[in-house]
Amino acid sequence: MNRVYIKTYGCQMNERDSEQVASSLRDRGYSIVDTEHDADVVLLNTCSVRDQAEQKAIGKAGYLKKRKVENPNFVLGVMGCMAQNHGSSLVDRLPDLDLVVGTQKFHRVPDHLDNLIQSMNGQGPRPSSIVDLAEEAGSQNTIRDHIGKAGQVSAFVSIMQGCNMNCAFCIVPKTRGRERARPIEEIVDEVTGLAESGVKEITLLGQIVTSYGRRDFPVVGGKSPFVQLLERIQDVKGIERIRFTSPHPRGFKQDLVEAYRDLSKLCEYVHLPLQAGCNKTLRAMNRPYTKERYREIVDSLRAVVPSMYFSTDIIVGFPGETEADFAESAAFFDEIAYDMAYIFKYSIRTGTPAETMPDQIPQEEKERRNQVLLDMLHKSSLARNESLVGTTEQVLVEGPAKKGDKLVGKTRGYRNAIFDGSERLKGQLVDLKINRATASTVYGDLVLAGVDA
Ligand code: SAH
Ligand code: F3S
């Protein structure tokens, strides 16, 4: 009765929330298993950003409920964004759900499961579903006790919850609530603990990290709370690399640009969501910047670190995006020459302002625009990776590659790197002479100075 499988959909924040739920369940005596087949309890941690992600989870829940026929005590739960988005109407649609837990209630999962299982073991009728979706002040502070797993090289650390922006297409403010920051000291303690357990790379997570603590903590010496946090993490012994996702162009000020110059551990890779490269579309999306301002940020980052890598999120087929608007957006996208990009076809989200906007774009047209950007991305990422051939890149070794007997790691620019070497190198920083590249991966040979390969 106590084997739990957690399936995670969506973003890295969801991954991190699932880890947290898993660790709190382990503390309560549950065991976390790797496949749904071995589990007595399946929890789906869901995503609502696009319809497709919700449909996947609904399909999965529909499939899993059959397990109840053979095992009446099988427990099925839905957590996270889709739970928050649809609330108790989810139980109307999926009456077999035992547990529906919102984004501010992850820490309550062990109690709810205990209660469900206890009443199932009793003689009485099967308990009704537990639905827990309320807001909870301070829920961001329930994220803690994050201990690196043995051999873990890289870890996500959640620094805040929620988002106060109102992008016209986005459901996240509804599912994740208002911005709430964790205190700097708690985050630094968590990172220190991770470093002590062997973690070398930290990725700070938040929906809008550039807003981190801006109402809770003062600006000091011209530096925002987020930059102050980066400086503190730079000082944590054992941490070799710092990354974060995602900043917002509006909050990307000079102090953050200069952090790339001043903080040696901050990797020269910026994920800076663009959403559209056309001012008319940006306005319609309620994104408070212009493409010219975005370009300024890119230029100022390239001025301090010429080799800076750029990644983005961009949406094609936003309502009212004409052929000319898209052409403008695509030209801007091409001009930045992104190293990585997540290209999304606009998906209608019920309750958002864009839902009722006129001139929705047909699906085939979204597909076409998507492909145009994918082709551009392929070219720019291939060109960038090819430019690395013949150079030496620092790689953090993650471990054995999926295929063959090679090792895999990441460069500071977040390129996948594949090479020959001993598994003992896992967790180490090595130098790699690059000899071949594709759009997604670079290949090379270890530079064997002081390295026991
Ligand atoms: N601020 C968050 C954004 C979360 S949503 C972050 O930067 O991590 C992640 C991405 O999904 C957004 O940047 C946007 O490009 C995309 N997205 C959000 N709503 C969408 C929608 N309705 N249709 C298509 N893509 C969407
Ligand atoms: Fe969504 Fe815009 Fe916030 S994309 S998460 S509302 S910055």
TrEMBL record:
Its EC number is 2.8.4.3. Residues 149-383 form the Radical SAM core domain. One of its GO terms (cellular component) is cytosol. [4Fe-4S] cluster 1 binds at C11, C47, C81. It is an enzyme of class 2 (transferase). The keyword Iron-sulfur applies. It is found in: Cytoplasm. [4Fe-4S] cluster 2 binds at C163, C167, C170. Residues 386-448 form the TRAM domain. It comes from the Bacteria. It catalyses: N(6)-dimethylallyladenosine(37) in tRNA + (sulfur carrier)-SH + AH2 + 2 S-adenosyl-L-methionine = 2-methylsulfanyl-N(6)-dimethylallyladenosine(37) in tRNA + (sulfur carrier)-H + 5'-deoxyadenosine + L-methionine + A + S-adenosyl-L-homocysteine + 2 H(+). Binds 2 [4Fe-4S] clusters. One cluster is coordinated with 3 cysteines and an exchangeable S-adenosyl-L-methionine. CDD domains: Radical_SAM. It holds the Pfam family TRAM. InterPro entries: Elp3/MiaA/NifB-like_rSAM, Methylthiotransferase, Methylthiotransferase_CS, Methylthiotransferase_N, Methylthiotransferase_N_sf, MiaB_methiolase, rSAM, rSAM_horseshoe. SUPFAM superfamilies: Radical SAM enzymes. Belongs to the methylthiotransferase family. MiaB subfamily. HAMAP family: tRNA_metthiotr_MiaB. Catalyzes the methylthiolation of N6-(dimethylallyl)adenosine (i(6)A), leading to the formation of 2-methylthio-N6-(dimethylallyl)adenosine (ms(2)i(6)A) at position 37 in tRNAs that read codons beginning with uridine. NCBIfam families: miaB-methiolase, MiaB/RimO family radical SAM methylthiotransferase. PANTHER family: CDK5 REGULATORY SUBUNIT-ASSOCIATED PROTEIN 1, MITOCHONDRIAL TRNA METHYLTHIOTRANSFERASE CDK5RAP1. Monomer. This is tRNA-2-methylthio-N(6)-dimethylallyladenosine synthase.
